[in-house]
Specification:
This protein is mostly helical and 124 residues long. It has helices at 2-23, 28-35, 39-49, 54-72, 78-84, 90-101, 105-111; strands at 115-116, 119-123. Helix 1 runs antiparallel to helix 2 (28-35), helix 1 (2-23) packs across helix 3 and helix 1 (2-23) runs parallel beside helix 4.
Length: 124
Amino acid sequence: MIHLAKQRNTENEKVNFATVQLQKGVSLPTIQNELNLSERSLERHFKQHIGISPKLYARINRFQSALESMRQTRFNSLTDITYQNDYFDQSHFIREFHEFAGTNPKHFIRNANEQVANFPEWKI
């Protein structure tokens, strides 16, 4: 019983390390190498502890970062946001944005009427 608890704790530490590294933009192969895990082992740990694959987690994290960039900064073009957030090109960014947001980035910007959490009277 103690051995299983220790193993679970170690797996959880590896997943925590991986999520922090992914949020910093470190690549999956680099993380796998640092943890000395195969792609399949890391995926299995992620699905067990988080519920999604590390690749999907990285994609969601990158999308969130791009969305935050669009909200926080002034930019001249979507290309700026694309490369700041490590997308290969603008078409990949637009396709992924549409997948997660349900609309393209330009339409989102024009029609954004977001409310601040806990303060519905405030608009972003």
